[in-house]
Each structure stands twice: as structure tokens, then as C-alpha cells.
Design a protein that fits this description.
The structure is a single chain. This protein has 246 residues and is of the alpha+beta class. 18% of the residues lie in helices and 46% in strands. It has an eight-stranded mixed β-barrel.
């Protein structure tokens, strides 16, 4: 079987397509293992769909399923287009709902499902957190001292609320974001739905307009927008390599 490894804004994924939809959780743990496998934050398997261009099965590195992954959606859209599985403008099914993507060279725009604010009044560790669903749940707090991201506090919050944990800071022309991701169980270099949640928080509070650049820990530049109730985010993706596995 041939698989491709992609990177999108610091997140990396193993991707392949098949005609058979089944449980790939054990394979995800094997392939995503950093020392003994290909190494990735997640596994994406594309399978046929009767109405849309395809359906995806997304697995975190620990084998758990996730409803949505923003950077993963852009990586798999590029893979689908490159392999003739979908046109440049495509729609596919995730556990969070239908996702639209547009591929233009190595730049991919993803249109996420409508965001939902679940709570604005969570007080923990001296900060106020919002809980926002941008396909998966995210805790978000803005803190000017973003360099002091306490991983143990984030881990505790992740398990208390079963959510990813983000801190963000508004800089002169962009928002900086750091994210602790469930399923990876550590801070990652980027998280697309986490950046979307941070952008939405700032937009709803009137801190930023309807378009903004965001930078995750990887330093990549992502461009987010909010229009007609939908968050769009755009950035580059890169295929790292393809390889055969037994």
C-alpha cells in the first residue's frame, strides 16, 4: 500500500485512499508512531461517498477518532486533487459535517462548519476561557504572555473538558496561537480548528475584523476570514514524500 506524508502549517499527516471503509485505529497508531512508523500527528483515510467527492476517516496519533481537523482538511484536499479523486473545488464528509475546500497550487482554502460558542464563563488558573466548537471543542484564552504556556495546566483542562486547549495573543498584524491537542496529548506546532476558535473569539469580542493572519508555533502564516457564519482559512500545504508500506 502506498501512503503519502503531508505537512500543513506544522501539523503532519499520513494519507491514503481505499475503497473499503473500516476501523483503521490500530493502523493509525502504527503509522503515526514517531520512532517506529512514518511519524505524524494523524492518519487520514479517504473512502468513496455516494453524493460528495469523498468521505474521510480521521484518526489522531493515539488511534482515537476526531470529528474534524482543520489543517488535515487542507492536506487531504491537496492529496485528493493530486490523485484525481476530486476537482479543485470539492466537498467531502467528516464527522463534523460537510467541508468545502479549494486547491490552488500548494495553497488550499478550507471552509469549516459553523462555529458554536458553548461557554464564555469558565474560570481556571487565573484566566477566563471560552469553550468553542469549530468542528471539535476548543478552550480559548487570550494572554499577552503567550510564551508561558503551562503544559500541565493545559493537560488538566484537556481532560476536565475533553477539549483542545489554546492560548492566544494579539500582535500588531496577526494573532499568535499555541495549542495543546487531545489525541496527540501534547503541544503541537499548529492546529487549524484551534486557530479558527481563537480567531472567532477575537472577532466576536471586536478585537479583530473579519479577516486576520494567524501564526501558530510553527511560524507559518494562515489567513482566516469570517463570512456568512462560516470561518475560512487558507495556507500552504506540502507533500513531504510517498512510501510503500506492508
Amino acid at each position: 500500500m502506498q501512503v503519502a506524508k503531508y505537512t500543513a502549517s506544522g501539523n503532519d499527516f499520513v494519507i491514503f485512499h481505499t475503497f473499503i471503509k473500516k476501523d483503521f485505529s490500530s493502523l493509525a497508531k502504527t503509522l503515526c508512531h514517531r520512532q517506529e512508523g512514518v511519524g505524524a500527528d494523524g492518519l487520514i483515510v479517504l473512502v468513496p461517498h455516494e453524493r460528495l467527492d469523498f468521505e474521510w476517516c480521521f484518526y489522531n496519533a493515539d488511534g482515537s477518532s476526531a470529528e474534524m481537523c482543520g489543517n488535515g482538511s487542507r492536506a487531504c484536499a491537496h492529496y485528493a486533487f493530486e490523485n484525481g479523486l476530486a476537482p479543485a473545488q470539492m466537498r467531502f464528509l467528516t464527522l463534523a459535517g460537510e467541508i468545502g475546500c479549494t486547491v490552488s497550487g500548494n495553497r488550499v482554502q478550507s471552509d469549516l462548519t459553523p462555529p458554536k460558542i458553548l461557554s464564555k464563563e469558565i474560570e481556571r488558573y487565573g484566566k477566563t476561557w471560552w469553550l468553542i466548537d469549530t468542528g471539535v471543542p476548543h478552550l480559548v484564552s487570550f494572554d499577552a504572555d503567550i510564551d508561558k504556556f503551562d503544559i500541565e495546566e493545559a493537560r488538566s483542562l484537556r481532560h476536565e473538558y475533553n477539549a483542545n486547549v489554546n492560548i492566544a495573543a494579539i500582535e500588531k498584524d496577526h494573532i499568535r496561537v499555541r495549542t495543546y491537542e487531545r489525541g496527540v496529548e501534547d503541544e503541537t506546532l499548529a492546529c487549524g480548528t484551534g486557530m479558527a476558535a481563537c480567531f472567532y473569539y477575537a472577532n466576536q469580542e471586536g478585537k479583530v475584523g473579519d479577516t486576520m493572519m494567524l501564526k501558530p508555533r510553527s511560524g507559518d502564516e494562515l489567513f482566516l476570514g469570517f463570512e456568512n457564519g462560516i470561518i475560512t482559512f487558507t495556507g500552504d500545504v506540502r507533500k513531504v514524500f510517498t512510501t510503500e508500506i506492508n
